[in-house]
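Supplementary Text 2. Reproducibility record for the structural model of the 450-residue chain.

All settings were left at their defaults, and a single model was retained for analysis rather than an ensemble. We include the record here because the model underlies the residue-level annotations in Supplementary Table 4.
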Amino acid sequence: MKKLLCLLFALLLCFSLCACGGGGNSAISSSSKQEEAVNPGYLKGVGEPFATSTIKGFNYNVASELLGALGSKTFRMWLSDSVLYPGYSNTTVYSYEQLAQISMAGKLQIGQYIDALKENGIEEIVGLGCFLPKVESTAKFSYANNYVPEISTEEGSDYHKFLNKVYVIYKAVSAAFPQITVWEMGNETNQNAFMGTPNKELTQEELAYINVDYMYYATKGVKEGNPNAITIPAGFAPIEEGMPSIARFYEKIYANIKGGNFPSFAEKTTATSDYFQGLCWHAYDIKNGLVTNSSIENKDLDEWKAQNDMIYNVAVKNGDAHLKAWITEFGFTLSQNQLRVTTAEDTSVTRYKLSDTYYDLVDVFEQYQADYTKAYFKKLEEMDYVNSVHFFRLFCSEQGMHWNGFGEVYFGLFLEPDETVGRGFYPRKKAYAVQEVFGGTGDITKYAAM
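Retained model, structure tokens:
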């Protein structure tokens, strides 16, 4: 899955060439007493696509063992209709009846993942619902699951059918997997890359409109499928200049809910809890800490904390100070100029072949990644509204190079296997940093060699 918006990767290129409730009414700021709060008890974990993984030599048992060795307590699990429904294609239009019944194969597959994760110490599973069901007007566009029909307030419109299908899917999946206690309703749906229409670019206002409707119907489904589970918004991404854009998007979300005109096709409600019961965003520090190009001693993380506080403040000002936040992605990567060009004859265990050129890791930048990891997790302890954090991601992805460049490859904690140098799932320095932060005690080198 693409984890970063196009603008974000434009920034990478510069380096490389490349959640109704009560609650308090007063907002926090980076200079308030909130700064002194310490939240060491928040759940720390990692996210990684298991189903339809593109990682070489992927094995969910191995991945689950490595998560356990790191000390992960929470895990973000990608789920899509391609795994859960038989005969799936990008253009398939499923009826309500078909969507209400998950395939036995899909249920068994995801069930195996859940069992393995639980056996390795995972306490919380966040289900990432990548569900944008096809309707007649979007099915003719063969694109991987990100199209929504044109906004409409007419009963029986494709937009109405789409929302009803969202409800049916979330009811089905939440009932099928009761071990999943938190449902993230999409991924980065504040940008067109993950919630778009075939014929035009959606504005932030249009995306906020669709997200509010989507969250109502998804939450309604989850409440009926598993009353013990909660929903959180899609992990909204830092676009434009970065994380302040997420705060502005939450302002639009709350304005829509409090305006009394939603949902579009059901009894109107201004209760936040009818839409979500927690907050969620992706805390990539685009300005200072996405590409680790200098020592952490040169960085002031107070601004990053203030940007997270800014997002939470929107909920506080709307009476939702009691809501907790899930940061379902954050992490660090490398750009092309932070790698060493090498050759096929180089037998270094950390060598990678990307676009017909061999590259190796550079110790100083690997150390920066480890140092940043520890420093950012330490800063997170000051944010007592945080429930869980998911580091992105478990494995480096060579496949990511083919569609999103160098930056997409090097978020991972472990390198993929490479039989030509005898490498298995090899831990990078930041894997040891994560293990230290998480308090893990397992052997993360167990699968380092083939």
